[in-house]
Write a structure and sequence with these properties.
It contains two helices and 81 strands. By secondary structure, it is mainly β. Among the domains are: about 325 residues; about 70 residues, Immunoglobulin-like, CATH 2.60.40. The radius of gyration is 30 Å and the shape is globular.
């Protein structure tokens, strides 16, 4: 399994040059007056009191200042009415053990760094709120105002910002709602389509460089404003404006962001809804549950991004076909630019949009991921129905959606899900639509992907459920299609080397339910559980692609009653559990194992040498066999041993162990070494079938051992004495059972 090193930065402090510090003062009473007196002229400001200092106006730092409250409990509070701190251009400010809370402003409610240099050590930025104002209602005007945008719930940075061992908790940024105009304004299309304000950076917005070490971000949020519309006594918001964008539940940045040993969790990003009941405006897009960066540089080391949530805004109904979401990207991270992620965990993030991109991360530009884990992230297409026949959207990339140049090494992506939108019902008079497609449970690739020494396991691409039709004697819609449980490569190119894909699934969605007017829909199709390739090129070298499964979805039912003479219910189909290539470019497959997958192991054009396809490769279950990611070992009688062709420059297997060992390299991601891998006896594949117990024993070649059994793990009885063969293998059957509910077995040297 992946091993992660968490950086401990508990004693790390940033310091400013002493030449920047002048004479300061001591705060003896927790009052605004005492604090302002101590701040005159800058310098070192300390506290010999505890308490909350409520501010009537912002503290503006005009001289180099070091404010320290070590050993004290000092809170600077904006009282939910004013911004707490402002740092003027060119001014240095250091905060030590200071709490900045309950600030209120349109941007930087806790701290506005207006071109200065700010350092925060062991500080707390919490409960600050940046909120844009709502557009004011007007009558008989062509342009009622848009909602005001808001940025940086706690911090707005246009200078240099660094924080160590600090917390950012429950900060928020909220865009203002668009204005409501008069009914007469609606006679001029577009005249009252006022936008909701955007919301960027629930805890922090940084337009320049920022460095965060050992910091915690928890329960920060970004919420876009609602679109405006028109109203009258006869019509409710007939025309409507756009919902506001929402980017970066914790941090939104546009320059350079460095994270070391940070945790960013429970962020929430929800874009504003569009307005309008007929000519409705679109909902706002939502991006980056934890962080969002645009044409920027991101470096994250030993960090965790977990349990963040992203939801795009709903459209206003557009010509009675709307009421669907906008697009959304990056349940944990959504970043474009130069990206380096080392030893990070991206886990349990969730995202939904009309098209959902990247449950864990959406990456564009040039990205490098190493030694990391993406686990249990979820992306979903829109699941709302229209009045008539709006389709359900796709979910793309449960773990990662790649739109740029991405290199992944030594990384585990497991238990991620990409699910298409569901319940595309036609309402009372419509036909409904098919469920949306789920593409790339682990990775969905639109760019250039280089996957090395990594494992994709137990990821799922699942189609959404089909919608119900409400027109006589037609069928409800089919479930959506699941494509590429491990990897769905839709365009660009994918190169896979020394990697394992196992236990992934492509599953069709359930068919739409029937009713007294329509027949139940057919289940959707699952295709290419390991890898699905559409139009791009793919090469796989020394890979193991095994035990992946494609299955069809179940049919719809009849929860509302049966129609006249319904046809038989029909399940969907599963195809090509290993690899499916539907493009016209042949895949390059070399020294790879593709076996044990449901349906066909491989379907489509491919070229290559020394592969094991559709045969029993004698693979051990996925396990921790050394290295940073789980692998599937080889049993001593595997035909993969010494079966590969020698390729220049390949000196190790997926685990980093030496390759080749013996007469030649082994096929697949794992290099078997009887001298090092089976240095002791092991019991594998213990089970029971038809009342007969069986076990496979591996150990050093040609060695004698005893098999013993026990019912209490205390008293052991000999079963048999056996000798492994020249490959270290000995299968045993007809093992005696114990009278108790539990039987234990072990091997012991004679």
């Amino acid at each position: 399994m992946v091993c992660f090193l968490k950086l401990v930065a508990a004693v790390l402090l940033f310091t400013l040059p002493t030449s920047a510090v002048h004479a300061g003062g001591v705060v003896s009473n927790p009052t605004e007056a005492d604090l302002r007196t101590a701040l005159v002229g800058g310098g070192s400001v300390t506290f010999d009191c505890d308490g909350t200092i409520f501010l009537g106006n912002s503290l503006v730092i005009t001289n180099a200042t070091v404010m320290s409250a070590a050993g004290r409990n000092i809170t600077l509070s904006g009282g939910n009415s004013v911004r707490v701190l402002v740092v003027n251009p060119g001014v240095d400010l250091t905060l030590n053990f200071i709490k900045v809370q309950n600030g209120k402003a349109a941007f930087g409610a806790g701290l506005l760094n207006n071109g200065g240099s700010v350092t925060a050590n062991n500080c707390d930025f919490s409960f600050n709120s940046a909120a844009g104002t709502n557009g004011l209602p007007t009558a008989y005007t062509n342009q009622p105002p848009h909602g005001e945008s808001a940025s940086g719930g706690a911090v707005f940075n246009t200078g240099s910002f660094a924080a160590a061992n600090s917390t950012f908790i429950s900060n928020s940024v909220t865009g203002g709602d668009g204005a409501v105009g008069s009914y007469l304004d609606a006679q001029l299309p577009g005249s009252v389509m006022t936008r909701g304000g955007s919301a960027t950076g629930g805890a922090m917005f940084s337009a320049t460089s920022a460095t965060l070490i050992g910091c915690m971000f928890d329960h920060n949020s970004a919420t876009g404003g609602k679109g405006g519309g028109e109203s009258s006594t006869t019509t409710s918001t007939y025309f409507g404006g756009d919902g506001g964008l929402a980017f970066g539940g914790a941090v939104c940045f546009s320059n350079s962001l460095t994270l070391v040993g940070c945790t960013l969790k429970n962020g929430f990003v929800v874009a504003g809804n569009g307005a309008g009941s007929y000519y409705g405006g679109p909902g706002g897009e939502a991006r980056g549950g934890a962080i969002y960066g645009n044409f920027a540089t991101l470096s994250a080391t030993n960090c965790e991004f977990s349990q963040n949530r992203v939801a795009a805004g709903f459209y206003g109904q557009l010509l009675r076909k709307g009421n669907r979401r906008a697009d959304a990207s990056g349940g944990g991270l959504s970043t474009a630019g130069s990206i380096v992620l080392q030893n990070v965990v991206v886990a349990s993030n969730y995202l939904q949009g009309q098209t959902g991109f990247g449950g864990g991360a959406t990456l564009s530009g040039n990205a490098l991921i190493s030694g990391s884990r993406f686990r249990a992230n979820h992306v979903a297409g829109d699941n709302l129905a229209s009045y008539y026949n709006s389709g359900c959207g796709p979910g793309l990339g449960g773990g990662i959606c790649n739109n740029g140049v991405l290199t992944i090494s030594g990384t585990l992506l497991d238990s991620n899900r990409a699910v298409g939108g569901t319940n595309g019902s036609g309402s009372t008079y419509g036909l409904g639509q098919a469920g949306g497609d789920g593409k790339g449970g682990g990775i969905c690739n639109f760019g250039t992907l280089d996957l090395r020494n990594s494992t994709l396991a137990d990821n799922v691409a699942m189609g959404g459920d089909g919608g119900s039709a409400w027109i006589s004697f037609v069928s409800s819609r089919t479930g959506g299609t699941g494509l590429g449980g491990g990897l769905c490569s839709l365009s660009g190119s994918s190169t896979i080397f020394n990697s394992t894909l196992s236990g992934n699934a492509a599953v069709g969605g359930k068919g739409g339910d029937g009713n007294p007017y329509s027949y139940a829909g057919i289940g959707g199709t699952g295709i290419g559980a390991g890898i699905y390739v559409m139009t791009n090129s793919l090469s796989a070298t020394h890979c193991t692609i095994a035990n992946n499964q494609s299955t069809g979805g179940g049919p719809g039912g009849y929860p509302f009653g049966l129609p006249y003479s319904p046809p038989p219910l029909a399940n969907g189909m599963g195809f090509d559990g290993g690899i499916r290539n539907v493009g016209e470019t042949a895949m390059a497959l070399t020294n790879s194992i593709v076996c044990g997958n449901s349906q066909n192991d491989i379907n489509g054009l491919f070229l290559g040498d020394a592969n094991l396809i559709g045969v029993d490769a004698k693979l051990a279950p996925l396990a921790n066999n050394g290295g940073s990611t789980p692998t599937m070992g080889l049993y001593p009688d595997s035909p993969a041993i010494n079966g590969a062709v020698t390729l220049a420059g390949i000196t190790s297997d997926q685990r980093g162990f030496v390759r080749p060992i013996g007469a030649g390299p082994d096929i697949g991601a794992f290099e078997w070494n009887s001298d090092s891998f089976y240095t002791s006896f092991r019991l594998l594949d213990f089970g029971r079938s038809a009342g007969i117990y069986h076990v496979r024993v591996v150990g050093p070649p040609s060695q004698t051992y005893r098999l013993q059994t026990s019912s209490d793990f205390v008293s052991w009885n000999n079963v048999s004495t056996n000798t492994t063969d020249s490959l270290g293998l000995r299968p045993l059957e007809n093992l005696p059972s114990q009278p108790g509910p539990t039987a234990y077995y072990r091997t012991i040297s004679p």
